[in-house]
Every structure is written in C-alpha cells, then in structure tokens.
Amino acid sequence: MMNTIVKSVLRVPTIRSFTAVGRRDFARTFWHMSKPDVVPGASAIPLKKPSQFCSCGCGSHRHKQTKAEQELSAFLNEEIEAEKATQKSFQSLPTQIDGFKVALNGSDIELTKQTDNEKIQISFNINHTVDTDTDDVEQDINANNENAMAEMKSTPNFEVDIVRGGRTVSFTCSFLKGPPEDEYSDLFGIDEVTTFEGEWTEKNYAVAGNLLDGYFYDLLMSLLEEKGVSNDFVAKLSQLSTNYEHSRYIELLEKLKVTFADK
Known about the structure:
Blueprint: E1 5-11, E2 15-18, E3 24-27, E4 30-36, H1 67-87, E5 96-97, E6 100-105, E7 108-114, E8 119-125, E9 130-131, H2 135-142, H3 148-151, E10 153-154, E11 158-164, E12 167-175, E13 188-197, E14 206-208, H4 214-226, H5 231-259
Antiparallel strand pairs: 1-4, 2-3, 5-6, 6-7, 7-8, 8-11, 9-10, 11-12, 12-13, 13-14
C-alpha cells in the first residue's frame, strides 16, 4: 500500500518595510511543510486536519486579512502614531470654561451655567466642523507643512438657550468667516433667534439674524456677552471643539484598526 503524503501550507503574515519617504514595499513568503505518514527516519510534525474555522485545524475562528485590509492596517498604524504625536501639544479637555460646566456625549458637547433665576445652556455637535477652507491651511497642506493639522480648527454652529422660568430664548450662532478686522471684531454672529415655552417644536416662529434691525441685533449681541458668550469665550469653545474632535478622530482610527486586525 502506498504511503500517503499530507501537505499543509502555513500562512506567514505579510512583511512590510517602510522607506524614508513613506512608500510601503510588500513581500510575501510562504512556508511549505510536508510529512510522510510512515517514512522511516522522517521527523514527526503533527499536522491537524484543516477545518471550516481555521486552515491550520486548531478549531478556532480566525480571520485572515485581505490585501486591502493589510494595507489599511499599515496606514492606520502610521496615522494613529502621527495623530497622537500632534495630540501631545494639545491641553487636556477642561471640565468647565468660564463658569460653564462641560458635558461630553458622543459627538455632542453641552456647556451649562446655572444661576438663581436662569439657566444658560450652549450645545453643539463636532461632526463636520473642522475648517479646511481657509487659504492659509490650504497653502500649508499643499506645501506639505507638518503643522497644517495643528492649524486646522473646529468652528461649530452652536445653540445658546437662556431659560428663565418656563420660557426659553434661543439663539442659533455661527463663526464668522475670514480673519477679524481688528481685536474688537466679532468672532461669531447670530443666525437665528426664537422664543418658546416648554419644549421647542417646528411650529415655533424664528427670525433670521440678517433680517433684524441693526440696533436690535447689537443689543442681542450685548446680551449674549453679558451672559458670558463673549468673543473670548467663543474662542475657548472653538479650542475645546478642536481638541475633542481630534480625540474622537483618533478613537475612530483605533476602532478601525481593531476591526480589521489580523486575528
């Protein structure tokens, strides 16, 4: 009776080498091992029968990375390292800003200040808020400036609710585009103002900020400043949003890395 030859191909992870300019060279190596079942003097290397879970027959469920997943993993390793290096220059996220308590919930940020007769609540979402449209940042990116990411800022639209009793006066505000003309120029403006009792609904009337009488508009801006929503505060709000958005971006990269890891 002829001897039966069992052949098994063991997979070796892709070997990556990185050049100084960041190019990735890929090399793939396979180990081919075989063993006669009954050949005198042959070394006995026990091989398991492959299963539907794992090609080596260990019985565990093993995910093998595809080529795209391997390349994505290599990029994620570099990107996470670079983003964390940039993050070191950022300050830790504050628990309060100018008397406003900071609460983080996913991509939402809420700042609240409570007094005896009113509550001031500022809320915004960090998604799609990083400004990459400024000329300076575009020039830095085109010139491969390593500091370009540090100069990108999150400038979210934000809601300011002044709650007194059962009534709320609500402002929708946004950052003004372009550099300020001088130190007294506003960093933000009022897009919309409304007032309502109880919870807001779409039936509540709202007026656009650019339709307001100029003097009326200035009075409302002075009111916001008096309540603590000043140029200085809004600049700190932007820094908070920038740092938090960056931390969430790194977290997203790390989750992608775990999801598509070779395991």
